[in-house]
Write a structure and sequence with these properties.
about 260 residues, mainly alpha, Arc Repressor Mutant, subunit A, 3-stranded antiparallel β-sheet, DUF1819 family protein, BrxA_sf
């Protein structure tokens, strides 16, 4: 079941989703957009890049409109929205972990993706995972809610999206190998921020909903957080097994944590 979001949660960027019924996560288009539009650009600059400059090379005006609408629904594409703004601010520090960074934001805005992550993480790394597993999952997760065609459509979009985020490898026949997604200081910081917004802190944060998405052993995860702290991406204090994280300047004057 979908948890009802507070108005503040919606204002800072969390969403009840609904985008994945029609398309995959389109991380390639998002990366193209972020690479071309300046980091300090406003929402209008992104709109112009997609609609007027046709940066994403869509064949018709209608397709450009639909693409922009989808990207806004899944990623916000608006620096006045906290979750997009902070992902965008951290993006220069990401490299191989850029797909996972996209995935973390998508999971915050599309609860279906975040729920499906649990199924993906249960599959051991190197084992195979096929499209049918995603169809079985969505049928169990939302029994009787969709038409037969929609269950198939959702399964294709989920399967492709987790491939784009880095959880699945190249196709091997009708299946893909489960991979551990590429993580870095940017994704570790952003995942911790999302969990911190929900009231988490300390060592327990490593197993909180978004930090778990990194799929890392605790030692590697902690090492990334400490490295992020040394680079000034966030505040990190760790001593005697006690971890304390802080995110100064991540929230605007009218923004606050959802829970503390």
């Amino acid at each position: 079941m979908t948890t009802k979001l507070s108005q503040h949660a919606i204002r800072i960027g969390f969403s009840n989703g609904g985008a994945l019924s029609s398309r995959t996560a389109m991380t390639g288009e998002l990366r193209t957009l972020l690479a071309a539009v300046p980091i300090d650009a406003d929402a209008e600059a992104y709109r112009k890049a997609v609609l007027e400059e046709n940066l994403l090379r869509k064949s018709t005006a209608s397709n450009r409109e639909k693409t922009l609408k989808f990207l806004r629904r899944l990623y916000a594409i608006d620096p006045t929205v906290c979750l997009f703004r902070e992902m965008r601010r951290l993006s220069p520090y990401s490299s191989d972990d850029a797909p996972l960074m996209s995935g973390l934001l998508a999971m915050a805005r599309e609860p279906l993706l975040h729920a499906c992550l649990e199924m993906v993480l249960r599959i051991p790394v190197a084992e195979s995972l096929d499209r049918k597993a995603f169809e079985d999952w969505i049928r169990t997760h939302a029994p009787g809610r969709y038409s037969e065609a929609m269950y198939v459509s959702f399964s294709h979009n989920l399967y492709a999206s987790f491939f784009q985020f880095g959880y699945l490898g190249p196709s091997l026949g009708k299946a893909r190998s489960r991979l551990r997604p590429c993580s870095g200081i940017a994704t570790a910081t952003y995942a911790a921020f999302l969990d911190w917004l929900g009231g988490m802190n300390g060592i327990a944060l490593l197993q909180s909903p978004y930090s778990r998405a990194l799929d890392l052993p605790a030692e590697e995860h902690l090492a990334l957080l400490l490295a992020a702290g040394r680079q000034g991406l966030m505040k990190v204090a760790y001593s005697g097994g006690v971890l304390e994280l802080g995110f100064p300047d991540f929230l605007g004057d009218d923004e606050k944590r959802l829970s503390a």
